[in-house]
Amino acid sequence: MMNEMEHLYNLLKETFIVIDDGDRRLFHRFGLTPPRFYVLLHVSEEPGISSSDLSQKLLCDKSNVTRIVKGLEATGYLERRPHESDGRAQRLYLTPQGAAICNEVHSAHTAYNIARLNSVDTAVQTTLIENLNRLHHLLQEELAQQTPPPNGHHLV
Amino acid sequence: MMNEMEHLYNLLKETFIVIDDGDRRLFHRFGLTPPRFYVLLHVSEEPGISSSDLSQKLLCDKSNVTRIVKGLEATGYLERRPHESDGRAQRLYLTPQGAAICNEVHSAHTAYNIARLNSVDTAVQTTLIENLNRLHHLLQEELAQQTPPPNGHHLV
DNA sequence: CCGCAACAGTTGATGTGTCAACTATATCAT
DNA sequence: ATGATATAGTTGACACATCAACTGTTGCGG
Q1: Whether pLDDT at B116 is above 70
Q2: What is the distance of C-alpha A103 from the center of its chain?
Q3: Cα–Cα distance between B135 and A125 in angstroms, integer?
Q4: Per-domain residue ranges for chain B?
Q5: A47 touches A93 (CB < 8 A)
Q6: Which of A27, A117, A126, A129 to mutate: most B Cβ within 10 Å?
Q7: B45 touches chain A (CB under 8 A)
Q8: CATH code of the region B4-146
Q9: Is the pLDDT score of A86 beyond 90?
Q10: Domain A4-119, what architecture?
Q11: Which of A113, B112, B125, B141 is 20 to 30 A from A146, alpha carbon to alpha carbon?
Q12: In the structure, what pLDDT confidence band is assigned to residue B145 with cuts at 50, 70 and 90?
């Protein structure tokens, strides 16, 4: 019927979906989407970060960042300033409102994660982390040796 | 710095991303995308299934199915026939070409999953499945009791 | 049998993601 | 210095996802 590999595969996907759905709802309560929040978060952690660096952190295409930033700028959460020495680049900064909402949502998200993930006991948590770590490494190796990555991914 | 919950959270997301990226590349080799493939797969498993039922299996909105089906119909992989007793509904069937590509890609995907997930040894696999199962259950309960689900999700 | 709620499916608006092609600036080797 | 190459960011075209609003059918309670 369904072998172990398929089972593991499906479990991973479904677990992710549930987590992601919870995130989406949480962010929605604050008028944000996951990508918008994660842009704010990264900018708050590294003020002045460039769009390119951001796209690498988010594991998505640069063009995607361009448009998300545009939206956040329109909402008044983010601003772009020209890079002082590189004429191509720009630097991203949070506005005061952006910083405020980012802190607020970040706390809520952390609390939510504690609430939802703390229900598994510590022992399970630890082995889960160990095992996922191993799997994650193996998968990444496997992918890396496959081909030069086109551009792929689609995080958060 | 980073507590256990955050760690687990990030690991789950990143692991999923790597898996998903591999999938995307695999399907791409056959001129398919993940959503298109999964529509074909479900129709092959349940010929005559309706769009509504499909959207529930895929955990996505009906309107999404409408458009994916439209695309697959245009490619000649799928056809729609009116439901014999319900004037609102339609039945979905694979064309011979659709059935052929579906089988081909399905085998390739299974083989790929075996290759990539078999590198973790059986013991790890087993505990991983157990622990993920537990986590998955808890998360789902948590989500379910939260609110009447709007429509959410975004599988595969 | 009639009116109305539920359901199947479509459409439009919008956000997110990809890729490919482009502009403009930087960098590096000669 | 100049010319090839790389990098930063934008844009256009398209796929996929949501939600909200709509059309038609079904089915059910009066």
Answers
A1: yes
A2: 16
A3: 9
A4: 4-146
A5: yes
A6: A117
A7: no
A8: 1.10.10.10
A9: yes
A10: Orthogonal Bundle (1.10)
A11: B125
A12: low
